[in-house]
UniProtKB/TrEMBL annotation:
NCBIfam families associated with the record: isochor_syn
GO terms of biological process kind: defense response; phylloquinone biosynthetic process
Organism of this sequence: Solanum pinnatisectum (tansyleaf nightshade)
Required cofactor names: Mg(2+)
Name of protein: isochorismate synthase
């Protein structure tokens, strides 16, 4: 019996150009940068994954793609039936003549009449040694600008394994790279999206722990599970470009190899604390070095004619555990308390997983509409409603926190004005509450001058003063000179590009995790006039607590006199 298919086809035209924004750093570093070696395979360079699928950056970014299609098959009642229908459709493609195009991308999707968590589907594929991704938008009040007003506004989360096409390079993300991604996307196929992340500072050297990510890494999933409100979709995507030596036949063969490995047996992801036992925990910088860095920043900030008004300094904490850390289990635990946050996971081939539970939106574009937000100032939540309100009022009345917040808000406003015909700020100052912390918050909306000018948007709004400082270049130079580790994708843009929409969060409250070899947990805090290094250190502890609460010290080792915390007090050169 033939299966009906609904087609959506579009052809692309060349995009307008935009100048590439670059940053410059000055001076030599005060500290020696440190790399963390997870495993031998981890140090393999990004270009070694090219054999797994097609690197879209190797094609002609200006050449229009031959075809962009979404084929929607009839809905079924279960994931098992969806896989049968998907397999049947792929078999039909193999038997049919190839499309008459030298390049293209085709998405086959099967709706499922049941809502299933995308993270559970991804966890069922834990046995696969393939690149994977996960992105979950925030579940917030209706007035928030999340996921726009498109026909797919009820998309809850997306999980993917394998890459139909990926995009990566060690050079900084450029206009040509953005064009390379855009040529595989279409407004008429809104769920063909490229998920990924960009380094915080593309000019900094890439440390070994981040080597597989390159300067940026994006992927269009080969097999994807979309969780919607009340239903689900499973999809398979093939992409080919003869100019990049990746033919339609190779794409079909690669997809079939992935499909054969998939599991349709769902296992509920543990959402309670796994309590991995900590064998050792190492801060970079240690407390003494942190105090020196903050003191030096304050000396510059307090000058009569300061070149620096704010700088965000970060810390990397490496934890070694007695048992494996499953990044998806960690992510599931974070998701429970992350109703107002984005959850993400990005894992290229031969690399750890970059996971996070970030509260901060960088921008969301829905056609010509764009929104962003300013988030700064941090306090813990109170143990009671009365205490929580008291802490909230303290945050609202703090001159130091208002100064830090105003810097972030006004800087984002000016950057949006550079790409928008109008910008509205509402509310101008409010409180955003999360499970463990609360922040000062403002929401910014704008009307873009050009819908397809996403590269300019990304270049304009990243990095915000909330993760870098102000002025931007001076703050970035100070970070480069001072910090002793590679931020990698931490505090960089994390999200997705789509044909009619794009959304990026800021990759904070994040960690780099590899099974059996521990994790690197990242956190940062803004230094402005009036900052106290010890209080800022306590803020780092508060921000990393969402990860550290998942672990506990290994009590038996304490009796043997082994150290629990190893602070690396690096000296100024």
């Amino acid at each position: 019996m033939a299966v009906g298919v609904r087609h959506c086809t579009v052809r692309f035209t060349e995009l307008e150009s935009s100048s590439l924004m670059k940053c410059s750093l000055s001076s030599s570093p005060l500290y020696r940068k440190q790399s963390v070696h997870f495993s031998n395979s981890f140090s393999q360079r990004y270009n070694q994954c090219c054999s797994l699928s097609m690197n879209g950056c190797q094609g002609d970014s200006r050449a229009p793609i031959g075809t962009v299609e979404t084929q929607t098959l009839p809905a079924v009642s279960s994931p098992a039936l969806a896989m049968e229908r998907l397999n049947s459709a792929i078999s039909d493609m193999i038997k049919s003549d190839p499309p008459p195009y030298n390049s293209g991308i085709i998405r086959l999707e099967v709706p499922i009449e049941e809502q299933i968590e995308a993270l559970e589907w991804l966890h069922a594929q834990n046995h696969l040694l393939l690149p994977r991704c996960f992105f979950s938008g925030r579940r917030v009040a209706s007035e928030m600008c999340i996921n726009g007003a498109s026909s797919h506004s009820k998309l809850v989360s997306v999980a993917g394994v394998g890459s139909a096409v990926f995009f990566t390079h060690v050079r900084p993300f450029s206009l040509d790279d953005w064009r390379a991604i855009r040529r595989f996307l279409s407004k008429k196929c809104p769920l063909i999206r490229a998920y990924g992340a960009i380094r915080f500072d593309a000019t900094a050297n890439i440390a070994s722990e981040w080597s597989a990510f390159g300067s940026f890494y994006f992927m269009v999933p080969q097999v994807e599970f979309d969780e919607l409100e009340g239903s689900s979709i499973i999809a398979a995507t093939i992409a080919w470009d003869n100019a990049a030596s990746w033919t339609y036949q190779r794409a079909i063969d690669a997809l079939q190899a992935t499909i054969w490995q998939l599991s349709s047996v769902f296992i509920t992801v543990q959402k309670k604390n796994p309590h991995s036992h900590i064998l050792a925990s190492t801060h970079v910088p240690g407390k003494a070095s942190w105090d020196i860095a903050v003191k030096r920043a304050l000396q510059i900030i307090s000058r009569n004619d300061p070149v620096l008004i704010k700088v965000v300094l970060a810390r990397s904490t490496r934890v070694m555990t007695a048992a494996n850390i499953d990044p998806l289990t960690w992510l599931a635990c974070l998701k429970v308390e992350g109703e107002n946050a984005y959850q993400f996971c990005l894992q290229p081939p031969h690399s750890p997983a970059f996971i996070g539970n970030t509260p901060e939106q960088l921008f969301h574009r829905d056609r010509l509409s764009i929104c962003s937000e300013a988030l700064a100032g941090t306090r813990a939540r109170g143990g009671s409603e009365l205490l929580d309100l008291k802490i909230e009022q303290d945050l609202l009345s703090s001159a130091k926190d208002h100064n830090e917040f105003a810097i972030v808000r006004e800087c984002i406003r000016r950057r949006l004005e550079a790409v928008c015909s109008s910008v509205l700020i509402e509310p101008k100052k409010a409180i955003r509450k999360f499970t463990r912390v609360q922040h000062l918050y403002a929401r910014l909306r704008g009307r873009l001058q050009a819908e397809d000018d996403e590269f300019k948007i990304l270049s304009s709004v990243h990095p915000t003063p909330a993760v870098c400082g102000y002025p931007t270049e001076e703050a970035r130079a100070f970070i480069s000179e001072t910090e002793m580790f590679d931020r990698g994708m931490y505090a960089g843009p994390v999200g997705w590009f789509g044909g009619e929409e794009s959304e990026f969060a800021v990759g904070i409250r994040s960690a780099l995790v590899e099974k059996g070899l521990g994790a690197l947990i990242y956190a940062g805090t803004g230094i402005v006039e009036g900052s106290d290094s010890s209080l800022e250190w306590e803020e780092l502890e508060l921000k990393t607590s969402q990860f550290t609460k998942l672990m506990k010290l290994e009590a038996p080792l304490l009796t043997r006199g082994q150290s629990r915390i190893i602070n690396q007090n690096q000296k100024v050169r």
